[in-house]
Every structure is written in structure tokens, then in C-alpha cells.
Specification:
- The protein has 269 residues and is of the alpha/beta class.
- The strands form three sheets. A six-stranded mixed beta sheet has the order 4-5-6-7-9-8, with helices on one face. Strands 3-2-1-12-13 form a five-stranded mixed beta sheet. Strands 10-11 form a two-stranded antiparallel sheet.
- It starts with 15 loop residues before the first strand and ends with a strand.
Length: 269
């Protein structure tokens, strides 16, 4: 079926289609996430949706995984992660989360030995994706160091032909629960990131960590948070309580010349 519009104009079609997954929390073999969930099976359900879409001729230009890819940094979990997503045959951008172990993440996914944060850059056509490391080894909350933000500023000094998407794990938005407030991105880092991307070619910020699909703004830049592939935070839990559901999702990011849309794709078992 061809796409038509009511006024006869050409339908808008995306220049880039990105799958944004987050918080897969793959555990050691035989261990269930939070002692309840099979995180591998949850990730496989999400990847199966993408695999089916690609087989049916739907475009997919890249996959972004925005942190907490493993629950404890198990090297085998990183190997299983790569085995799940890389057969999709598109560039994959792996981002560090607070549950990841930075040194093992670098070794297993980036083939590097760095101990400090790494600014990653992946370009698909004219669209650039820059990944920040907002983690603090041994801590659950997030921070962006001045040196790391200086790297970002230097990279943004040279605009990309079709703009830039910045990715980090700790969402620069108000968290949806008291527990996540305790593990949030530090306010000074959120403000510094806002100032660093203001007036640049950054079109969108992508993040995870909240286990809940969210949208907001950082200054004038839109922010889209992907839910976890395994679990969903309930922002309407009773006062004084945290509640989660076994419910996965990912975000489909479609980039157009003059806008970007983000659609939540539920993937429940």
C-alpha cells in the first residue's frame, strides 16, 4: 500500500531510523534479574521485534543501548548481549550504565583498556551520535566530569551535516520515583550538560536509567528516555513505596530533516 496525504503532497519519510533500547540488566548465566525475571529472554523479545521488522523490509540504521546493559558486569553477559544485537547487521552504540563495570564494559564491548570515561562517536550518513559516560564507579547516581564535558564541547564545535544526538545513561530529567531521585544525575551535571549543548547542532538527548519511557526537555533540546527491556517503574505506586512491573519496551526514533519522532514500542512476555 502506498502512502498518500490528503493534500497530495509527498509523504514525510525518515532519513534515519534508530532503535533505542536500555537497561537490559543481563545477569550471570542461570541467575534471574531481581531473583524473578529472565533478562535474556526479555531482551530477546525486543530484538525479535526488530529482527522481524528488518526481515519485512522496514529500515533500521542503528541500535542504541543506553546503559545498565548487564546487572553486575559479568563478561559472559556482555558476550550474550553482543550475540543478541549485532546480528541485526547495523551499527550498535553501547553506552555505560551504573550497573555496568566500566573496565569490563570497555574491554568486552569497545575493545579498549581505558579506566576513565570515553566519549564515543558513531556517524550514520550525516547523523552523528555522541555517547557520554555518566557513571561513577561504585555508585548508583550519575555525574559528568568537567574533562568529559570538555571533550563533548570540542566535538560539537564541528557540526555534523544532519545534526547530533547525545546519549547518556542517567536521564537529565526529574526521576519518576523517590528511589530514582537518590540515584539521579547530579544537578550540577544536568545544568552543565544543558549549557554544553545549547546553541549547538544537538537535536535530541537520549537516556535510560528510569526503567520508564519519558519525554521532556533540557533547556530547548528534547529528551527521550527509553524504558527497560525487562522491567517498568510504576510512577503511581502508593506513597512511600516503590513498585515495578515485568513489562519491557524500547523506543523507535525516526529522524526527519525538520523534526524527530520517538515512539514507545511495548514488548511484554
Amino acid at each position: 500500500m502506498s502512502w498518500t496525504t490528503p493534500d497530495g503532497s509527498a509523504p514525510l519519510r525518515p532519513t534515519h531510523v534508530l532503535a533505542h533500547l536500555s537497561d537490559s540488566h543481563l545477569t550471570s548465566a542461570g541467575v534471574r534479574y531481581n531473583q524473578v525475571l529472565d533478562a535474556d529472554a526479555a531482551l530477546d523479545r525486543a530484538v525479535a521485534v526488530l529482527r522481524s521488522a528488518v526481515a519485512d523490509g522496514r529500515p533500521l540504521d542503528a541500535v542504541i543501548l543506553s546503559g545498565d546493559l548487564t546487572d553486575t558486569g559479568d563478561p559472559d553477559a556482555y558476550r550474550r548481549l553482543r550475540a543478541a544485537v549485532e546480528p541485526l547487521g547495523v551499527p550498535v552504540l553501547y553506552v555505560t550504565g551504573n550497573h555496568d563495570v566500566r573496565t569490563e564494559f570497555h574491554r568486552s564491548l569497545l575493545g579498549r583498556g581505558d579506566e576513565g570515561p570515553v566519549l564515543q562517536s558513531v556517524q550514520v550518513g550525516g547523523l552523528r551520535m555522541l555517547a557520554l559516560d555518566s557513571t561513577i564507579p561504585g555508585a548508583g547516581h550519575g555525574r559528568l566530569t568537567a574533562e568529559h564535558l570538555a571533550e563533548l564541547t570540542a566535538a560539537l564545535a564541528d557540526p555534523a551535516p544532519e545534526g547530533t544526538i547525545v546519549v547518556l545513561h542517567h536521564a537529565p530529567l526529574p526521576p519518576p520515583s523517590p528511589l530514582l531521585s537518590y540515584f539521579a544525575l547530579e544537578a550540577a551535571s544536568r545544568i552543565a550538560l544543558r549549557d554544553a549543548i545549547a546553541g549547538t547542532d544537538v537535536r535530541l538527548v537520549l537516556a535510560g536509567h528510569h526503567h520508564l519511557a519519558q519525554s521532556g526537555t533540557l533547556g530547548a533540546i528534547p529528551v527521550a528516555v527509553a524504558g527497560s527491556t525487562a522491567i517498568r517503574t510504576d510512577p503511581l505506586a502508593p506513597n512511600g513505596h516503590e513498585r515495578t512491573w515485568a513489562s519491557g519496551s524500547f523506543n523507535l526514533v525516526q529522524v526527519y530533516p525538520d523534526t524527530i519522532t520517538v515512539s514507545v514500542i511495548p514488548v511484554d512476555g
